[in-house]
Amino acid sequence: MIDNNCPYCAGGEKLAAFGIEICELKVSKLFLFKEQSHLGRCIVAYKDHVSEMIDISKEDRAAFLEDICTASNAIHKAFNPDKVNYGAFSDTLCHLHMHLVPKYKDGYEWGGVFAMNPQEKFLTDAEYEEIIAKIKANI
Fold first, then answer.
1. Nearest-CA neighbor of 74 among 30, 15, 122?
2. What whole-number distance in Å separates Cα of residue 79 and Cα of residue 64?
3. Each residue of 54-77: pLDDT tens digit?
4. CA distance 92 to 84
5. Comparing C-alpha atoms, which of 126, 123, 133 is closest to residue 33?
6. Domains in the chain, ordered, with CATH?
7. 3-class SS of residue 102
8. H or E stretch covering 19
9. Tens digits of residue pLDDT in 78-135
10. Which of 6, 14, 81, 129 fits 102 for a cystine, CB–CB 3.0-4.6 Å?
């Protein structure tokens, strides 16, 4: 099922407002979150427009969690964060997705909850490409 109002389904400008596609995984797509206050922050979005983990089969749920682990492992290898925070929440954008937010002890928001979109750190296209290349090299 596709929802044309959903940025993960529709792509284009709606998605480009906050993310850049990195690659496809087993049952999801990996996106770089454009706001990079947390170096390497990404989103893993399930391949179909479903709202909840309980809306997918046990096999796809396991594969989705494996995709999250694959992405997290790549982030750890590429950027060596002290911790990756995981966030699965959204009341209005009902497309199953998980935020992967690398945290650094000497960095932004260490010791607290990450802001959904602090709108503080945006990069050049070349800088986004460099981050994406580092993540892809570790998938």
1. 30
2. 22
3. 999 999 999 999 999 999 999 999
4. 24
5. 123
6. 7-136 (3.30.428.10)
7. strand
8. strand 19-24
9. 999 999 999 988 777 889 999 999 999 998 899 988 888 899 999 999 999 999 999 9
10. 81
